[in-house]
Amino acid sequence: MNPSAQPTAEVQSARVPEHEVSPLILNRWSPRSFLERDIPEEDLLALFEAARWAPSASNEQSWRFILARKPEDRAIFYEFINPSNRVWCEKAPALALVLSKKTNAQGQFHAFHAFDTGTATGLLALEATRRGLNTHSMGGFDRDKARSILGISDEFDLHSVIAIGYRGPKEVLPEALQAREQPSTRRPLSEILFEGKM
Predict the structure, then answer these.
(1) Residue 194 domain-assigned (yes or no)
(2) Same domain, 59 and 152
(3) What is the mean pLDDT of residues 12-33?
(4) CA 35, CA 166: separation in Å to the nearest integer?
(5) Could you tell me if 18 and 107 lie in one domain?
(6) Does one domain contain both 23 and 94?
(7) Is the pTM here over 0.90, yes or no?
(8) Full domain range(s) for residue 78
């Protein structure tokens, strides 16, 4: 099924938009069960190509990604990912650490570095959905350890680790996670949109 053509059955039961949006947006969610199946090079790199074209304040393009797809590189990532996330993310065939450069081309603090990087990550997730892949961003990792192990300088902020791959059956997850393996709902528009003032 083309994920941009219509919402999946499980998404339709959990996600009812108040206004029409692309089914691609509704079909994007964050499963934890992944198949141990390699991702074709052209599909994997296309996700980062999508991120590359994100909007960027002053065109600074602050986002950076460190990709781990070889078994030995993923094993290094496992050293700084929290055990509660390792339980499921070790089956994902690719992991990516999301960083942003805190300064602009003039060496001054760039106030929008994290905002722009979040936008780039969102585009990456949508392109993954379009290609039949799933992503799950994790905040649960030791940033200091990741910085030390990967040799990342202080000019970068570390934001998340994204698990990337094909969705697997929920039955392979620990029982506590199986119940959570479904699309989540969202707050009503009235709780997030204010006109004129809050």
Answers:
(1) no
(2) yes
(3) 96
(4) 6
(5) no
(6) no
(7) yes
(8) 31-167
Name the residue among 60, 32, 80 with its Cα closest to residue 184: 32
pLDDT digits (tens, 9 = 90+) for 68-77: 999 999 999 9
Q: What phi and psi values does residue 106 have, to the nearest 5 degrees?
A: -90, 5
The answer to whether the Cα torsion of 101, 103, 105, 111 is positive or negative is: positive
Q: Compute the residue count for the chain.
A: 198
> Are 3 and 96 members of one domain?
no
Distances (CA, A) of 111 to 114, 160, 190: 8, 19, 28
**Nearest to residue 75, comparing CAs of 183, 140, 150?**
150
- What are the φ/ψ torsions at residue 162 (nearest 5 degrees)? -105, 125
Element (H, E) at 149: helix 143-150
Could you report how far apart the first and last alpha carbons of the chain are, in Å?
A: 41
Q: What are the tens digits of pLDDT across the range 122-150?
A: 999 999 999 999 999 999 999 999 999 99
Beta strands (DSSP E) in 72-142 are 94-101, 134-138
- Beta-bridge partner residues of 164: 94, 135
Q: Coil, strand, or helix at residue 81?
A: strand
Q: Longest Cα pair distance anywhere in the chain, in angstroms?
A: 53
Q: Are residues 76 and 114 in the same domain?
A: yes
Task: Please count the structural domains in the chain.
Answer: 2
Cα–Cα distance, 9 to 62 (Å, whole number): 37
Residue 150 lies in a domain: yes
> What span, in angstroms and rounded, lies between the C-alpha atoms of 174 and 80?
21
Are residues 25 and 46 both part of a single domain? Answer: no
